[in-house]
Amino acid sequence: MTNKAIEITDLAKVYTNGRGISDLNLVVDQGDIFGFLGPNGAGKTTAMKMMTGLMKPDRGDVKIFGASITEDYVNAMKHVGCIIETAESYPYLTANENLKLFARYYPGVDQRRIDECLQITGMLKYKNEKSKKFSLGMKQRLGVAAAILSKPKLLILDEPLNGLDVEGMLDMRKMIKRLAEEGTTFFISSHLIHDVELTCTRIGVVYGGKLVNVEYTRNILTNYSSLENYFVSEVDRNGRV
Ligand SMILES: Nc1ncnc2c1ncn2[C@@H]1O[C@H](COP(=O)(O)OP(=O)(O)OP(=O)(O)O)[C@@H](O)[C@H]1O
What we know:
Elements (H helix, E strand, L loop, with lengths): L3 E11 L5 E10 L3 E5 L6 H8 L7 E6 L2 E2 L4 H5 L2 E4 L11 H9 L7 H10 L15 H13 L5 E5 L7 H16 L3 E6 L2 H7 L2 E6 L2 E7 H8 L2 H11 L4
Parallel strand pairs: 3-8, 3-9, 6-7, 7-8
Antiparallel strand pairs: 1-2, 1-4, 4-5, 9-10
Helix pairs in contact: 3-4, 4-5, 8-9
The structure holds adenosine-5'-triphosphate (ATP).
Protein name: ABC transporter
GO molecular function, one term: ATP hydrolysis activity
Keywords: ATP-binding, Nucleotide-binding, Transport
């Protein structure tokens, strides 16, 4: 049994305008809360779309718990929950009805598990409200509730803290840490340096379509005192775009 949750090899996707992401090599271990940190346009979403099979790579491959996303998609995605770009829900359905709809994909998920996910994400009190009335933060939480229904071993979340207020961010961070303690591995993209520093155990800096470095948060804080210092140093070392 591999302890690698994600293994990315020579992954590349370059759009016709020359932008995208190239030469991505990365291993995320089980138990990591991995932060994929980079500014707008760095290539994070492009990489995550390929990692979850939403976009075909020009070359390279991604293995999730040992199964190739390009050759064995069903097995690769079997233990993955993800939110890429925005957490979508049906606006005229309640939180509970939305989750019941998702639950149809998973034979083992019953009303008890739905209630549990609503409780974990702080959405139980809004269970019977329609999602069209939800704030962005509530929609994000409902998205996470849907993503964790099947108890996935790996959660891939694209900018989960985007648009959240301070309280929403604190709640989301608490939830991520709680799930990580229970054994979930995370791959989280963000451009919010401070938040990645507080949330993630290991960080990859992506800049101008390339992964410039990967390091444990504790080492970064020991050697650079803040993630911001490390980020600036890595970007300078690799040449600003
Ligand atoms: N469909 C597309 N066609 C052409 N260029 C694209 C396309 N999608 C993204 N790009 C470009 O590729 C680069 C990487 O985009 P991507 O969305 O992966 O970045 P990102 O790091 O997720 O940014 P953000 O934080 O703003 O979401 C950007 O320069 C973007 O303009």
